[in-house]
Design a protein that fits this description.
The protein has 131 residues and is an alpha+beta fold. The protein has a single domain (19-130), classed as Glutaredoxin. It contains 4 helices and 4 strands. The two termini are 16 Å apart.
C-alpha cells in the first residue's frame, strides 16, 4: 500500500498492520475512524476517494469484502441518488456500481480495508474487528 501504508520505524517484533481507509475529511464518522486507527498506532494509507474514485473492479472487490450489494453501500439520502434513480430496485447492479464510481459522493464511508477484511466504519468501532 503506497502513501503511508503501515507504520514506519516500528520497534523490532511489533506487528505491522497494513490498513487502507477510503476517507472523506468532511465526514465526522470518517474522521472518527481515522482517529481510532491512529490512537492504536496505525498510520493508514488514506484514499481520498472523492478525488480518486475507485474503479468498478476495485468497488466490486470492496463490496465482496463487505458482503454487500452496491445499493447497501449507496448513500440513499444524497440528492444525486434520487436524481439518477439509483434506489430503484429494477436498476442493474452494474449500473449502480458505474454511477458510484463516476460520482463517488454516492459511496457510503468510511471503508477500511486490512489483510483481515473490509469493514464500513459505521459505527467507527466496527473496524476494530479487522485489526
Amino acid at each position: 500500500m503506497a502513501q503511508g501504508g503501515g507504520r514506519k520505524g516500528r520497534p523490532e517484533g511489533e506487528p505491522s498492520v497494513k490498513v487502507r481507509i477510503y476517507h472523506n475529511p468532511r465526514c465526522s464518522k470518517s474522521r472518527e475512524t481515522l482517529r481510532l486507527l491512529r490512537e492504536r498506532g496505525i498510520e493508514p494509507e488514506i484514499v481520498a476517494y472523492l478525488e480518486t474514485p475507485p474503479s468498478p473492479a476495485e468497488l466490486r472487490r470492496l463490496l465482496a469484502g463487505l458482503g454487500m450489494g452496491a445499493r447497501d453501500l449507496l448513500r440513499r439520502r444524497e440528492p444525486l441518488c434520487r436524481e439518477l434513480g439509483l434506489a430503484d430496485p429494477d436498476r442493474d447492479e452494474e449500473e449502480v456500481i458505474a454511477a458510484m464510481c463516476r460520482h463517488p459522493v454516492l459511496i457510503e464511508r468510511p471503508i477500511v480495508e486490512t489483510e483481515k477484511g473490509v469493514r464500513l466504519g459505521r459505527p467507527p468501532e466496527k473496524v476494530l474487528e479487522i485489526l
